[in-house]
Amino acid sequence: MKILVTGSAGHLGEALIRVLQPTDHEIVGIDVKASPFTDEVISITNRKQVKRCMQGVDAVLHTATLHKPHVATHTRQAFVDTNISGTLNLLEEAAHNKVKAFIYTSTTSVFGRALRPSSEKSAVWVTEDLVPIPRNIYGVTKFSSEQLCRLFHFKFDLPCIVLRTSRFFPEEDDRKNIRDSYDDSNSKVNEFLYRRAEISDIVDAHLLALDKANNIGFGLYIISATTPFTKQDVVDLRKNPAKVVSLRAPGYEDQYALRNWHIFSDIERIYVNEKAREDLGWRPRYDFHYIIDLLKQGKDFRSPLAVSIGQKGYHKQKFREGPFPVDE
Length: 328
Description:
There is one protein chain. This protein is globular. The longest helix has 21 residues, at 76-96. By secondary structure, the protein is α/β, with parallel strands linked by helices. It has a domain at 2-176 and 195-226 and 267-284: Rossmann fold. The chain is built from 13 helices and nine strands.
């Protein structure tokens, strides 16, 4: 099978190609940036270039995008051009070439303001049924592209799977209060409780979606580590998260004490991956329990794949305050 991977110079694009290269599939990586995993340096906003690269393609893994870190440094038009028009170009050519599967990497950022608790007393239990209210141009354009995928499935019978991935970037947190209050590894391990996924598990979800797209037709899934929490915990997670973690994941305390780590003082949302596990057969390995076991063994809590890829950054320039400027 010939598989086109967009965004091949990015974290996820590279991860997918690293995993797919040893297989029998023919892999073509495209990106606006040259990299060891990029076969064609093109822009997905260029329809003629997309058309040429789509020749003979059986499946598309579309990870190319402008991200949240670009919101303050790129124009809204640039987001529309790349995230919407670029996706439309790919979908048009995929439908024309009768591609067998189109997998679109979206983001839990599309939920936006819907993630903010309506009550200070309860965390938001986030499933695919939650209606997105994007809060910036990134969320707006990703949500719009999800709808394009839905349209092309129903209009052209193009098998499309949308994967809303939670955090998986290795860079430090963009929130100053988190950087000031928590060690970077501490904050990332905390996030596996409710809003982070390991890149190796995300790759697995994409490959499962690729395999099942034809049978599913159109599907939309939250891709995040399996939370230890239950829906009954949403009130207590706003009052005393550490107490809830001790109940749902006992045994973490010693490892946190050794490192002078702490659970966040407030957990306001929980991403639920039940639908992806049920429909795709996805079984993410890296959850909070597994990571605590790795820490007990003195091992890196990151997957070997994540370590191999390392940090890429989102900008050429360095910023005085934080990994990138924040503009909501």
